[in-house]
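Help!! Second protein's tokens look totally different from the first
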Amino acid sequence: MSGITIGTTEVRDKLAHVLNEVAYGSQRYIVERRGKPLAAIIPAGEYEALLEMLTDAGVRGEIHGIAVQIRFDGDRYFISDDQFDLYGEGPTLEAARRDYWLAVQDYRADLEADADRLAPYLADRLTHLRALPTAEATDEKGTPA
């Protein structure tokens, strides 16, 4: 992350100064607690541009080797793919990622249940899904353990 790192106590004590630097000096701050990032303070115009970009075009990303498109409508995040035609959504990006990964795991389980009767294109999808981490090999956030 780029920007000035500042602790929660310091940002509380210097909030007016920090806000002025962000609003008028185009500075960015990363607020940390015990060395872990909690929030970013960025100029309002930059925030609006990011929201517009996520809403209109979205951004490309990857979840466990699956190319995905991430969008934000101002309230919720949406993650979809073109490969399996699956999606996930949630109030936070992490929640949407977890929901998407659950959809992938459910789809794999459905295909596994009918593995001996699948059409060739579905058998190919199952082969690709078998190469991905399983639910047991991921942590509670859906990331590889």
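Here's the second one for comparison:
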Amino acid sequence: MTVPGPSYSNTKNISRVERWLQLTARPYSVRGVSKYRGVSRSRNRPDKPWRAVLKYRGLSFYGGQFSTEEEAALAWNELVLRYIGPEAEPRLNKVPSHDQ
């Protein structure tokens, strides 16, 4: 049985960024609480329950704790652009703006 999606069989001949892009193309975890990639709940601070963490190259890059899920998603986007670069732009969180 074949599963639709990216092929993971030939991963030795690609760059780390391309591999990261392949891995992030997978569907979000069913267990995850947040609807945004790289955002999770934190129990440490009730006033700022959302945190942004980028995991890349075996390292975790901490983006901080935030009062809203959307703020944490935007912080994760900044981490991605800083540590991975503009080629990771297709995987950025799409956060609706509340400007009216």
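Reply: Different proteins will give different token patterns, so don't panic. The helical segments are 16-24, 69-83.
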